[in-house]
Specification:
Blueprint (H helix, E strand, L loop, with lengths): L1 H6 L6 H16 L8 E7 L5 E2 L5 E9 L2 E2 L3 E9 L4 E9 L3 E7 L5 E11 L2 E11 L14 H13 L6 E4 L8 E10 L1 E13 L5 E6 L13 H4 L3 E5 L10 H11 L14 H18 L3 E12 H12 L5 E7 L20
Parallel strand pairs: 2-9, 13-14, 13-15, 15-16
Antiparallel strand pairs: 1-3, 3-4, 3-7, 5-6, 5-8, 8-9, 10-11, 11-12, 12-14
Length: about 350
């Protein structure tokens, strides 16, 4: 994985199409928020939201109702370093519905956030904005252990000795005239332990690139995604807990309560940490996809958001077969940052 960090990997032409497709997926999976009667418009005084160290930032604030600025609107605000203790709180009256707040600067790379609130006609409205200060100069808070590469090479090689034993069940209720959908069970980590997911394939008997799509956080039902296959990918959308996505909602709730904060299970034991089997399951998904006769033999894509974004990065780092990566708002990132006076990512251990 360290070689991956140094060299990255070549992104092929499919990445461009994939990014466009991801945008489509985001809108398809998340219904648009209802239009609010009252809205904030927060505009930084730097056109790309990024500032140099010691450069002062200010935010223009507009409050409007049905697009019309609200005169003399009163707001409360607070700002400070992202997810840390606020530096300042205050109130501001917006003449003609507009105003401006200086949020200062930073001497070290990082982010600042401004949170604003107002009460209009008895209803509370709030919004926030975050700006970066030399964000591309942020340094990691940890270094790879000396045995990092050898540890994962050994784990992956051991996992490959376990028969993958794929079981595919055709799902006509999800399939269309263009896409075949299968429920898939593959063996991972230990004999008798499995990863489940939905495989979607174009119905044209041609060779195609393969795409692995790991899930966001939580213990919850996954659903087949046909859009990737409609764009010419053989896609595999998985869960990570060894649970069939076709069990009842009640069973899901019971398992979710039992697992609790699964991301912390055996955190102090690298050999038995919960995510070890998850990471190996991701490489096992690549094993499965590249074994399919319809695989074009060359293009292997990973993509996901939140936990899925992190798992996409991990998969690309651990598996040299991955040729394209598209990760958005990845979790599992910079978890030790809080002890270095900087906000870390989910799961917020500190």
């Amino acid at each position: 994985m360290s070689k991956f960090i140094i060299e990255m990997k070549k992104l092929n032409i499919f990445l461009v199409a994939l990014i466009l497709l991801i945008n489509k997926q985001i809108y398809a999976q998340n219904s648009p928020a209802p239009i609010k009667l009252v809205q904030f418009v927060l505009t930084p005084n730097h056109d790309n939201w990024n500032y140099k160290l010691n450069e002062k930032a200010s935010i223009k604030i507009l409050v409007h109702k049905f697009g019309v600025p609200i005169k003399n609107a009163k707001i409360t605000y607070q700002y400070g370093q992202d997810f840390l203790q606020e530096e300042k709180k205050g109130e501001l009256k917006l003449k003609n519905g507009t105003g401006q707040i200086s949020i200062g600067t930073m001497k070290t790379p990082g982010f600042k956030q401004l949170i604003v609130k107002t009460i209009i006609d008895g209803q509370l409205y709030r919004d926030q904005i975050k700006v970066g200060f030399a964000p591309f100069k942020i340094k990691p808070t940890t270094n790879n252990p000396k045995d990092f590469d050898s540890f994962w090479e050994k784990a992956i090689n051991h996992n490959k000795q376990i028969p993958i034993d794929p079981v595919l069940t055709y799902k006509p209720e999800y399939s269309t005239t263009k896409v075949d959908v299968f429920l898939v069970q593959i063996q991972n980590y230990k004999k008798g332990q499995h990863v489940y997911g939905y495989l979607s394939k174009p119905k044209d008997n041609k060779k195609h690139p393969v795409l692995f799509h790991p899930p966001g956080a939580g213990v919850k039902k996954i659903n087949p995604i046909l859009a990737f296959a409609e764009q010419g990918f053989i896609s595999f959308t998985t869960e990570i807990h060894g649970i069939s996505p076709e069990i009842s909602k009640e069973d899901y709730k019971d398992i979710s309560r039992a697992l609790g904060n699964y991301w912390a299970i055996n955190l102090d034991d690298k050999d038995n940490y919960y995510y070890k089997s998850v990471y190996l399951g991701c490489t096992r998904a690549i094993d499965f996809l590249t074994s399919l006769p319809e695989f074009d033999g060359k293009n292997v894509v990973v993509t996901g958001g939140s936990q899925g974004g992190a798992l996409s990065i991990v998969t690309a780092g651990l598996d040299k077969r991955v040729t394209a990566l598209a990760s958005f708002y990845p979790a599992l990132s910079d978890n030790s940052a809080y002890i270095n006076n900087r906000a870390g990512g989910w799961y917020f251990y500190i």
